Amino acid sequence: ELGPYSHFMQKEIHEQPKALSDTIEAVLENGFAAGLFGARAAELLPQVEGVKILACGTSYYAGLTAKYWIESIAGISCDVEIASEYRYRDAFANPKHLVVTISQSGETLDTMEALKYAKELGHSMALSICNVRESAIPRASELVFYTRAGAEIGVASTKAFTTQLVGLFALAVTLGKLRGRVDAAAEHDYQEALRQLPGSVQHALNLEPQIKAWSDKFAAKQNALFLGRGLHYPIALEGALKLKEISYIHAEAYPAGELKHGPLALVDESMPVVVIAPNDALLEKVKSNMQEVRARGGELFVFADLDSHFSESDGVHVIRTPRHVGVLSAIVHTIPVQLLAYHVALARGTDVDKPRNLAKSVTVE
Ligand code: F6R
């Protein structure tokens, strides 16, 4: 079943070009049509005035990424909340807001209960982004987008996450279209970005030997920091979660601009700092954050784009991701942090597919 791979996690990381193409297929065939989200979407989506995303863990980070797309492309407000928090607070519900749950398994108890609670509070429009057909959460939702990642066996979520991002991106563009903010030319560009995505992800997978070469430097560490800005901040969070989950190294992620508000105090020669630094509008800001780290002796591990000017120097390691795909760059930049976590875990000899204390599907509180 594993084919040439050593673990399900590695296999599933490598299945991403296929999982993404399968998930994208309908969008490439029909464009960003309401019908992607189920039979009632043409009736419900035009009424949506805001979005509330509820999820746990990696799926929550997909939600955090989606907030950037929904607000910038659809031009409506989006808030994202951890399901286990939402379900126990006196929340404010606006019935014009679409509740979006994100769940690989479709059975996560906290997410399911958060959805039920949202309904009790008066929400009547719920969309499930889910990888398992007919599981509990999509069955309790008016609308559904099934990711086509195929079965995910490794406890650490990988291909489910990147395909969730595709579903959420499609939602942002579809809402933008319905609101008259995405014209035919823009829709074509977004479609084109999706079309190129599996190829870009394949290029990122080809970086595996370089990333593996970094893993020995991490294996002996107790702590690591991950930095990103904008759309890449949630990817930094995801990278830190993957690392702690499977390698048991304590890892935290911060938006790079937050460093000087506290975490910089942690940085010394023993602190590796992973930076997601694509060539976007925030690159210069990220570079100055990197100097702050270097000045305190922190060792930098930078994922940069091919076309940006970064040089390796003492304490600064650079891997270039092959191609920048604009608005979908967050998806491409997920691959290197997944591979890093995987190879560091291998170097530490942990049980990659079944990390201690964790279960694949969390159906208890
Ligand atoms: C992390 C991971 C978990 C899940 C979380 C939600 O690698 O797998 O954080 O993302 O338990 O699970 P689903 O998406 O099934 O609701």
UniProtKB/TrEMBL annotation:
<keyword id="KW-0315">Glutamine amidotransferase</keyword>
<dbReference type="GO" id="GO:0004360">
    <property type="term" value="F:glutamine-fructose-6-phosphate transaminase (isomerizing) activity"/>
</dbReference>
<keyword id="KW-0963">Cytoplasm</keyword>
<dbReference type="GO" id="GO:0097367">
    <property type="term" value="F:carbohydrate derivative binding"/>
</dbReference>
<dbReference type="GO" id="GO:0005829">
    <property type="term" value="C:cytosol"/>
</dbReference>
<keyword id="KW-0808">Transferase</keyword>
<dbReference type="GO" id="GO:0005975">
    <property type="term" value="P:carbohydrate metabolic process"/>
</dbReference>
<dbReference type="GO" id="GO:0046349">
    <property type="term" value="P:amino sugar biosynthetic process"/>
</dbReference>
<dbReference type="GO" id="GO:0006047">
    <property type="term" value="P:UDP-N-acetylglucosamine metabolic process"/>
</dbReference>
<feature type="domain" description="SIS">
    <location>
        <begin position="41"/>
        <end position="181"/>
    </location>
</feature>
<feature type="active site" description="For Fru-6P isomerization activity">
    <location>
        <position position="360"/>
    </location>
</feature>
<comment type="function">
    <text>Catalyzes the first step in hexosamine metabolism, converting fructose-6P into glucosamine-6P using glutamine as a nitrogen source.</text>
</comment>
<dbReference type="GO" id="GO:0006002">
    <property type="term" value="P:fructose 6-phosphate metabolic process"/>
</dbReference>
<comment type="subunit">
    <text>Homodimer.</text>
</comment>
<dbReference type="GO" id="GO:0006487">
    <property type="term" value="P:protein N-linked glycosylation"/>
</dbReference>
<keyword id="KW-0677">Repeat</keyword>
<keyword id="KW-0032">Aminotransferase</keyword>
<feature type="domain" description="SIS">
    <location>
        <begin position="214"/>
        <end position="355"/>
    </location>
</feature>
<protein>
    <recommendedName>
        <fullName>Glutamine--fructose-6-phosphate aminotransferase [isomerizing]</fullName>
        <ecNumber>2.6.1.16</ecNumber>
    </recommendedName>
</protein>
